[in-house]
Batch of 4 targets.
Target 1
Amino acid sequence: MVSACAIAVLAAAIPTAIARAFRAPPGLSPPASTGFVTRDPTTGNLMLNGRRFRFSGANAPFLGLAEDSSAYGAPVDADGLHLASHSEIDATLDSAQAMNAKVIRAYASLLSVGKSNAIQPTLGVFNSAGFEPTDYLLSQCAGRGIKLVFPLVDNYQYYAGGKYWYCTENGVTPDSVASQFFTNATIINSFKAHISAVLNRVNQYTGLTYKNDPTILAWETGNEINMFPNTGISAWTNEISRHIKLTEGALQLVVDGNTELDPAGFDLAYVDIYGNHTYVWPTPAQIPANAAMIHSHGKAYFLGEYTWTDKSIDGSATPWTLTELLSAIEASAHVDGDSFWELLAPLAQFGGGGFVLHWPGDDADMAARATHLANHALKMGFQHPGE
């Protein structure tokens, strides 16, 4: 575990010249964060307060139900998990701000099911205590100028549960890809009940109902949600996005959580944002083309996850570098935003995946890459190519 003293030493070692690079250009300031992010249906651009909203940010998976053991004073429950404490959330947000992040994709905050401290511990039963970290997170992001993207279900059966859980809890034995999650009306309705409970949550700190909170940029239909093959998934996406926006009246945007881009679904009425995740594919050359295709339908493009390590999930080297990826994003007029995987609070440790980033860096390589990401985020906030 990295000590607070070691982190302080690393922070002090960042050269003054690099620190200067984080400052806004003279006479400019980042766009105001108040108000809802909207989508221009003609251009596909995201908009905030009358100007284009372009961003870079981070995935922060442990801001709600967290998988690692807490280094910030939260008790570990019977499942070996904990609810993020205020100090852990504050430390993560401090790091995000230092990296100029304008958006955080809070992967596990509002999708957790099947655990004692989950949002939905058992089918149809919702846990007010499980919402508390997200209540606090929203209250703090509002004052920091950070927007949030919340996936609503996971494609996998990781620690926070996902589509397989909805099948088994409804008495259905899922096939290898839980295709019944997308086709069984009873299962779909149980997922809609989860969405409704989330959207209608009243924040104990702000008094705002989640579906009326401008701090939330978008609701994502799921994390890497897919059927393999994806034939018919656009009908499910249409039904879920309609439930979010029309039935429940959420004021925020909707992200299609299917990262396997399907042109048949690009014109869904209640979906605003489409995108990819990349750990190998798509390449830096392909991402601008994908984004341009999405924008041609009047929709926005979000690169929701990417590796910052030049390594893929299996540990092999990617055929491109972080520098190449970020340069391609910055140069594209059609990439609206991106978020790297994954930012943790400085004292939080997690052994899985090999993608944990602590600000300002645990070693020289991480520090250099974190600095690159921070400078990239600043550029995304001020550069609007093609305008």
Target 2
Amino acid sequence: MAKKMNYEKRFYQKILKAIDREDKNAFYKEFNNAIKSGKMTVSQTRSKQQLSFDATWIHVISGYMKNLAKIVNNPRIYMQAEENVTPIQSAKKINARSVQHLSSHVQLVHEIRDDGTIVPNKVLSTTYEDTMNIYENRFIMTLISKIAAFVEVRYNQITGGVESYKIDHLKINDSFRWRNYDVDATIDLKVKEKVDDEVSKKNMELVDEILTIRAYTRGFMQSAFYQTMKESGARPVTPPILRTNIITKSVDYNSCLKLWLFLDSYRELGINIGVLDKELEFDNDFIDDVCDMIMLDYSLIAMNQEDREKTYELYPYKMRKEKEARVDTEELVVEEQLDTSDLRKANPPSISEYYYQKMKTNFKSEFTKQVNSGISYKRSFLTIYRRMLKIENGVQKEILSGMEQRLKKQYPTKVKSAAKLTYLKREKAIYQQVLMVKQADVSSIEAHLRQIEKDLKKYEAQVPVETQKLRKKQRAKALKAEKKENKDEETQD
């Protein structure tokens, strides 16, 4: 770098020697005075730009990689039984279930021999196949995709470079009068230089860890486990995550659940750009050099215009009309009809597992407090449910209010009524969708209520029978105890 700067310095010194500051026509002094008498501003700054990472997410994901790798390499396998009615000669295995099935399907009997032997034509055969398509493995498959998306977003943010830079910025503005001309001069020059410091070295180490995580994740997606799950048509899981015995009791699966919760709770990109600035001083000699630079730029333009004046005169002028901002009121009142089916398929509606668990814990805790304080289950539940609806309606109003404010800012004052009409049409469409969702929810509740009423009738019929059995058992026990007592008394006599 030192040699390069010496080259540039020597080159600039040659330019300065070529400038005749003591010319006989006094052009230099006159022009120099015109430049300095104008409105000149000169600023010279040096900035240091540093990119820093939040290593929390890197270390957390790295810490759970070994648990995820164990599952991918040795996933849980479930033995799935398949029952098929096949010809007797093709049946591989016959068990008690086959006999039970044959007794209720006599049409499958071919003949009954004199000795009582039953010869079936077809029989129920059970075959067992290993499958990985269970909920816990679907959870792991979805987690791998979730990690890949999480890491890829942050990886793309750092591909532009992780080094620190030093930037020298020179900015000059001057407006002055020269003879019959008004001259506006602007020079904006930035020189960026890479700096090797401790922050850059640390960033490179973290980038290596990110690349390792990225490589692991891509390896998981190419693994036999992941590909088999995809080929079997396994569906991704959506929150809330079921706390099955395997997920809660297995160390590896439970660690993956914790990783899922962390990914949901971590909302930052984890990348920060710090910029340090300082003003650089300059003296009168530097100002003289700046004036020389402006003079050279002006002289270049003047010389070019003079040498090519005849050629430029041949070029015709073209009228340039400034575009005016205009709002088409007809378009404002047209309701947008968007086909969002593809978007829904690509991004299925889901909730954050982390925030779901937080809300669930808070509401359950509040419910328990109310019940423990003597409030009935019914009243406690209704209180909590009303609070949930209040939060839902509050979010709904905030979103709609924000949409209305954006429309007011977007449209000019003259078409405020059209903007309001557009808002009302959109609000109507939204509430129609809300009503459909609510009706579907009500239908689901009504179906559940019908099932409860059906179960009530069933168990109301069973209770008297069970009560009679219990009373009979109690009487028999009391009678047995009475006989034993009488026998003991006879023995004593």
Target 3
Amino acid sequence: MKDKDIIKLKEQVYDANMALVRHKLVIFTFGNVSAIDRQKDVIAIKPSGVDYEKLKPQDMVLIDMDGNKLEEGLNPSSDTKTHIELYRAFENIRGVAHTHSRYATVFAQAILPIKCLGTTHADYFYGDIPCTEPITDSSIEGDYEKETGVLIIKTFKSLGLDYSHIKACLVGCHGSFTWGDSADDAVFASAILEEIAMQNLYTQLINPSVKSIKNTILDKHYKRKHGKDAYYGQKRSIYRAK
């Protein structure tokens, strides 16, 4: 496809995938990023099993919302159906990232949420980062990657969480998925998630009985960056307040 918007979409997704490497969130082929053009219902995503050092912008795979390839070439990421489920359910997101980054995956393998223990966390996520239960055997035997997305969505619904304020989820025994206003924002969320997971682990090693911060501190720090009366920093994307 030679549409200028689609070419730009591929370039953005390529850059976001390479950012996973720069931020040391992936090794070898351990992750993927996608983005969606909501007007065209076209998704660009990393190809399956291709080393990052070999990737080129034109290698990004175009698919529709049913997972059908829109041009000849490489196969899309094996996690494509998970991305699609998130795009279907979380209607305002435009980018999704998946990693097996070290500290976030430690919590996923422990099947534990990442508690909001301090203001670093509260600056970017409005509460604890949830972790799903391990996927069921029937879901594994069925459409595994689609069911992984369904599991994330069910977890958010059961906990009454807002995907626009907690842009991350751990999948039990697996890894993390993050999302945002673009592919770049999704990677940014992954990088912040990894830093918070590291801080969380060491904090709980020092004080195993530590509890999540009180709501007044959470409200203050999150809303001063992301609330309707936010006053931190300059005007920019919700996730790019630095």
Target 4
Amino acid sequence: MNVYFLTTKDEAFKSYQIYEAWLSTQHNARIKCLRSDRGGEYLSDEFSAHLKKAGTVRKLTVHDTPEHNGVAERLNRTIIEKVRAMLYDSGLPKFLWAEATAHAVYLKNRTWTRTIGEMTPYEILYGRKPNLSNIQSWGCKVRVHDTGGSKLDGHSKIGRWMGFDSETRDGYRIYWPERRMVTVERSVKFNFDNEVSVGVLPLEGESKHVEQQPNTTQPIPETTETPIEAPDAEKIVEPDIVEPTEPTEGRGRRIRKESKYVRMLREGTGVTGEKLSLLPKGMQSGSMSTVVADVAVEDYAMATVVESAEGLMPTYEEARRRPDWPKWDEAIQKELGSLKKSGTWEIVERPKGANVVDNRWVLHIKKNAAGEIEKYKARLVAKGFTQIYGIDYYETYAPVTKLASFRLLLALAARNGWPVDTFDFDSAYLNSSLGENETIYLEQPIGYETEDRKRWVWKLLKTLLYMG
């Protein structure tokens, strides 16, 4: 889908010629039929003569019957609803509707619909999957690298992201509210609203008076309200908390919050002793400047908050459409092999009048502490909501560790300086067998049937996780 913006309706013919030339040159395709309403912009003598010369068949609807162009009319409504939502969410003025429309069409071309199956319009046209890794919220605030000021001025300005520039390889369209104009920029930084500064923290036995190398900028205490006196020529008093300088471009360093342990050290209620291994990474050795650059404690917690953004828990249908489907299939086969090896079921003929519980796959990408993919994991769970309490079951139980026990183990490890590691048991819950009076039938998982699914079902011999 291409979109062209017109100042007046008489520009429709010129835009049609541009689109026709693009199809012919870039994709070696010709327009065989043009369907439209009876608007005057389509019925001009110039437009009609061009269609006849090109051999394009014209199809017109009867007046007052927009439903005969139902697909186009519905698409127009879909686009305008996306535009309305983007303008409302961003709080930007309505005269940016054209920028919002262009971005809505960009997203529409790169998302699949039920009509064309499991491929996107972009894949059908170009034969490859689109790259959506750099998609951001339309209208979000961004920092744009700027070198137009003096050496003492900031090297970035805040603008609003309008999407990608179609005529530039790596250009972003940026709206400047103070100038009410849109420009194309390259060096752009997203997601900077939640930056939190952390100060330089002195360790026990170290003086706050630290020799400094000559620098163009001096750290300023955040909490002071008195005028700043000129520093001594030999020594400069370094404050407890300093503001890190903003990187001019590129990804930059993540600004981190101090942990409770570090805060205790700063307030003087904790000591380091001789066990430097208890300190956060980056505070075990080195100068004071090394602390700010190397504190990477929170890196190991980042992997727990990116599941939804990175697609770490897709549905079975979504996983089949992804390029990493072979890894998901391998994980599913491993899960089925583990269930079969544990004697979880036996296959029997479908009993008449019995409730047969359906199932589904729960897929999850597990990452290590550094945020790298460790393994693909698949788990077959029963759809427990199809069972009736008092008829199909009487109680449920999940063998999990209590949080209090987990905290006790961590406290003992921290007290004694023990390293803490984690590992996973495959199918650990398959240790409980069903009783003689507990009869549960389960459908064979779709795509992995061993017998006719309509005739044969599984009779569970051991417990299986269920989804309530």
